[in-house]
Amino acid sequence: MNESKKLLDTIMQAHNTQQMILPDGSLSSLNSIVTRRNGNVMYLAMSGGGKTRSGVIPNILTAFWSYVISDPKGTLYKNYANYFRRCGYKVRHLDLIHPENSDKYNPLKYLKSTDEIVKFAHLLVYANGGGCSTDPFWDRATELLLSALIAFVHEHDGNEGTFSQLIELTRSIDANELDNGDGTCELDRVMEEHGRKYREDNGKESWAHRQWLKFRSTPVRTFNCVLITLHALLTTLDTEEMQSLLSCDEIDITSAGREKTVIFVEVSDTDRSKDIIANTFYGQAMNRLCEFADSLPESRLPVPVRFILDDFGTNVRIEGFQNMISNIRSRNISTIIAIQSLAQLDAGYGANSQTIVDNCDTMLYMGGRDSSTVELISKLSNKPFNKIMDMPIGMFYKIQRGQPAEYGRIVDLNEYDLSFLQSGKSNEKDMVSA
Asked: Which residues, 6+ apart, have CB-to-CB distance to 33 below 8 Å?
């Protein structure tokens, strides 16, 4: 059979039966009720081992669920966005490499309560896998200040309040007024007036004003240090391009659970300055989809959502992910995680990395030199350590809970003609009827 025809047939079969494509081109069921396994998959391979070409790409081409796709170089959006459009998908693009080309994203739109504001402030401070400082005091103080400012924007403008307004608010705080004036700044006066008006209009105290007063109990020198910490946290977002990206919301996160949607998150694998927004988005997307699912009678999304997180060890840091991955299956959410090694995962998630590994019922090992990874695969496959360490290039082990490990050859997309992606026969109707 012609190889490109063979690949198309595999993709169509996977699409029609809602199965994932394994590195050797075979299919594996994602029906957790039938298999009694969760749909979480971990790809392990060193750089160039085929995680993207033999793992990520074949499985996004199946196009049967909604997808949130980490796109470290922007090539996935460039090559496959039109394919998804022809398949009837709503395509969204969060482009943090070229923000002027991005759909707009407003994190503040998704905050519905003061509890969510506190969680969001915490998410911002810890979005890159750690706090702003080695001293927890400064992180807690920064969270308190952020909570007050976010709540002010939220109380003042509701769902119309934007992240851009938050940054403008931080700019308005002039620490020199504290040192040279009467010990107050302009934001003290703004907050006082807001608290008064909010009390008159709503018959209760402003939570933003209350949080601000808590923060203002700190000495002036501490105030200034925390303000500098906050400016440092947000400085990479204070550009014209990023201000425009954060000025409103076109992403509509929960739509991925209602209708077939693909969201490409394009973030540089060499420039880490925009990670705070990417990681905030991943965490917020997963939380909001879970909350949306919980609001429905069966607590399951009508359209399942698959997070495909390429370069998970270096490009993705989701606060609390070890808890999320333990609980998302029942909501019709699953993940594909691609990492180079367990050591890389440990660097990002520490002791929580084992929980992440334990919650991936399918593990696909495609080679590497990290001894801790080799040792794990050796135990799980019941093969000698040296046999795994010296595994030939182009081979892989499939390890699924409840089955013996299997050994096979990796099928690389370079072997196929992918011209059908640009043909008119990639819409969903044609795929289903093929």
From this structure: none
- The SS3 assignment for 213 reads helix
Please name the residues in contact with 228: beta carbons below 8 A apart, sequence gap of 6 or more. none
* Structure token digits, residue 274: 């925009």
**N-to-C CA span, the chain:** 16
- Are the C-beta atoms of 356 and 342 separated by less than 8 Å? no
- Checking phi first, is residue 384 left (phi over 0); if not, alpha (psi -120 to 50) or beta? beta
**Cα 316 off chain centre by:** 7
**How far from the centroid of its chain's Cα atoms is residue 137's Cα?**
27
Q: Give the integer Cα–Cα distance in Å for 368 and 219.
A: 52
Site of tokens 């302009």: 186
Q: What is the DSSP string of 345-371?
A: HHHHHGGGHHHHHHT-SEEEE-----H
196 alpha-carbon distance from chain centroid: 39
Largest CA distance in the chain: 83
Rounded alpha-carbon distances, angstroms, from residue 234 to 66, 125, 142, 163, 174: 31, 10, 11, 11, 16
Surface-to-core class of residue 314, CB atoms within 10 Å of its CB (0-12 exposed, 13-18 middle, 19+ buried)? middle
Q: Which residue is associated with the tokens 């005091």?
A: 137
Print burial letters for 238-254: b (CB count within 10 Å at least 16), e (below 16). Answer: eeeebbebbeebebbbb
Helices 136-157 and 114-125 cross at an angle (nearest 10°) of: 140
Cβ burial, residue 207 (10 Å; 0-12/13-18/19+): buried
pLDDT in tens, the chain (434 residues): 455 567 778 888 999 999 999 999 999 999 888 888 999 999 999 988 889 888 999 999 999 999 999 998 889 999 999 999 999 999 999 999 999 999 999 999 988 889 989 988 988 887 655 555 567 888 899 999 999 999 999 998 877 889 889 988 888 887 777 666 667 788 888 999 999 999 999 999 999 999 999 998 888 888 888 888 888 888 888 889 999 999 999 999 999 999 999 999 998 888 878 888 998 899 889 999 999 999 999 999 999 999 999 888 777 788 889 999 999 999 999 999 999 999 999 988 888 999 999 999 999 999 999 999 999 999 999 999 999 999 999 999 999 999 999 999 998 776 665 666 655 554 555 444 33
Residue 104 φ/ψ region, left for φ over 0, alpha for ψ in the -120 to 50 degree band, beta for the rest: beta
Q: Are 68 and 256 in contact (CB under 8 A)?
A: yes
